[in-house]
Design a protein that fits this description.
Blueprint (H helix, E strand, L loop, with lengths): L1 E7 L6 E6 L2 E6 L10 E11 L1 E6 L1 H6 L4 E2 L6 H11 L6 E4 L12 H8 L5 E4 L5 E4 L1 H6 L9 E2 H8 L12 H14 L2 E6 L5 H10 L6 E7 L20 E9 L23 H4 L1 H11 L3 E5 L2 H14 L4 E4 L5 H10 L2 E4 L3 H12 L10 H7 L3 E3 L10 H9 L17 H6 L16 E4 L10 H12 L5 E3 L5
Parallel strand pairs: 1-4, 5-11, 6-7, 7-8, 11-12, 12-13, 13-14, 14-15, 15-16, 16-17
Antiparallel strand pairs: 1-2, 2-3, 4-18, 8-9, 9-10, 18-19
Helix pairs in contact: 2-3, 9-10, 10-11, 14-16
Length: about 475
């Protein structure tokens, strides 16, 4: 493939770029076309490295296209009304989006039973994916015992893998996966790390064998999948070379939206520390034996401390997923231990008010992007979709100007420059160069110029949110 007349960041004039076998092999002006070579005319468009979403739940995101939207609900009564309005059209009703911290009233099984009875299973998944509010029919269908309230944390994570057993739930999955890839490519994403529950590597390998994989995919495993894992991180799993084995994912605590993040408070830690967190040294050792990079979910500052203790005692290298609340000493420890921070900037837009409410006086611990970079901790941006949209431009904008409304930025001292947000979005590729992957995104203009002031940061974030790539090229495939 030959891409003519691209602008590289920092260059004075357009140049050409040649790729072969998925790698960039030549960059220079007026490169001659080779026989049979595919040619793309960029017309002076800016070329940047392909973008990555480092944390996606692909199955749930794909199914989300057909789910009832419960986002933005202010009360349980409002959600029940939404359920009543659509109930009966399908054999199962699955919803997604609400947040416990935003709801007035308690989510009870009885409230859903009052509108659905025992006819239609209702499963309403929280917007942070850490709990579900179910009807009695849904509990029974998934083999869960009766209860008055929600299903949360480990019990929910075990149940979510069985959702496809419910009538009609699996039907839209594969169509949704195709649509997810289309949406991601349209945003300039060339790759994603799939953190979905279950043996997702077998699903992606089959999709690749069917010729349906259009972007790079790293597929994670959880501890339950270790006996069958097909190889170490980086193992190629399909004929295209686009699907590879990803990390070992371990969930150490809950989430802020479900009030279950394991946090330090004056009276001692509060929230939920998972059983797997107590086994972390053994799991990290097992991951090292199998050649798997560990990716450990830790949102609360107390959970991050537990995770870093495990990294320290084992000498393992890996990443912390979310790293949302960080004590000063743990920022420094992450750098010292060589632990990367896989973060989701768009979450801060929703978590701003709940953090101030739930952790008064401690909000400065949240989303410490500038402090992490200053300490030498590499940042990896993602969405945690479907919790936030698969949209790297939204993530970059949130990192540059930490506000979603007319208010000033939330702790602007932690904001990043646009070019720093870009680097956190490109899987560590800082520039297009010979020998690098032929993953290229073409843009009409450069939205990554230095931001000199807070006012300029708001404008820069607005420009980032509006970016729509002209083209996305994955492994020299247009």
């Amino acid at each position: 493939m030959l891409i003519r007349q691209v602008m590289l960041r920092g260059a004075d004039a357009p140049t050409d770029l040649r790729a072969t076998a998925g790698r960039i092999v030549e960059i220079g002006p007026s490169l001659p076309r080779r026989a049979g070579e595919e040619v793309h005319e960029a017309g002076g468009a800016l070329a940047i490295p392909g973008l990555w979403d480092q944390h996606v739940h692909a199955g749930q995101t794909a199914q989300g296209y057909a789910r009832l939207d419960t986002a933005g609900a202010a009360s349980t009564a409002e959600i029940v009304a939404r359920v009543a309005a659509v109930l009966g059209a399908d054999p199962v009703l699955v919803g997604f989006g609400h947040r416990l911290v935003d709801l007035a009233g308690e989510p009870t099984v009885a409230a859903l039973d009052a509108v659905g009875g025992d006819r239609v299973p209702v499963v309403l998944i929280g917007g942070d994916a850490h709990h579900a509010w179910m009807s009695s029919a849904a509990l029974a269908a998934l083999g869960l015992p009766p209860r008055a309230g929600i299903v949360a944390e480990d019990e929910w994570f075990d149940a979510v893998a069985r959702l496809e057993e419910l009538p009609g739930v699996a039907a839209g999955l594969e169509a949704g996966i195709d649509r997810l890839q289309e949406d991601a490519l349209s945003r300039g994403l060339v790759g994603l790390t799939d953190m979905e529950w279950g043996e997702t590597w077998s699903l992606w390998r089959r999709r690749d064998e069917e010729g349906r994989v259009r972007m790079r995919v790293r597929t994670a495993t959880y501890a339950s999948g270790l006996p069958a894992v097909p190889g170490p991180t980086g193992t190629v799993l399909g004929p295209s070379g686009l699907v590879t084995m990803g990390p070992l994912k371990v969930i150490a605590d809950g989430s802020l939206g479900s009030r279950s993040a394991y946090c330090r408070h004056a009276g001692g830690p509060v929230g939920v520390l998972s059983d797997y967190a107590l086994e972390l040294p053994q799991l990290l050792t097992r991951a090292a034996q199998l050649g798997l990079e560990p990716a450990i979910h830790a949102i609360g500052d107390a959970a991050v401390g537990v995770v870093l203790d495990a990294f320290a005692v084992t000498g393992a290298r890996g990443r912390i997923e979310h790293a949302q609340l960080l004590a000063d000493e743990d920022v420094a420890r992450m750098a010292r231990l060589g632990v990367r921070a896989s973060v989701q900037p768009a979450h801060l837009l929703d978590d701003r008010d709940p953090t101030e409410e739930l952790m008064p006086g401690a909000a400065h611990l949240a989303y410490r992007f500038r402090d992490l970079l200053a300490a030498g901790v590499p940042l990896l941006f993602g969405s945690d979709a479907p919790v936030a949209p698969v949209d790297p431009w939204l993530a970059m904008a949130a990192a540059v100007h930490r506000s979603a409304d007319e208010r000033e930025a939330w702790h602007p001292e932690q904001a990043l420059q646009p070019h720093e947000a870009l680097l956190a979005s490109t899987d560590g590729i800082d520039a297009l160069r010979v020998g690098g992957p032929a993953d290229v995104v073409l843009l009409a203009e450069d939205p990554f110029e230095e931001v000199p002031s807070a006012a300029a940061a708001r404008e820069a974030a607005a420009r980032l949110r509006e970016v729509r790539p002209l083209a996305t090229i994955v492994a020299a495939r247009g």
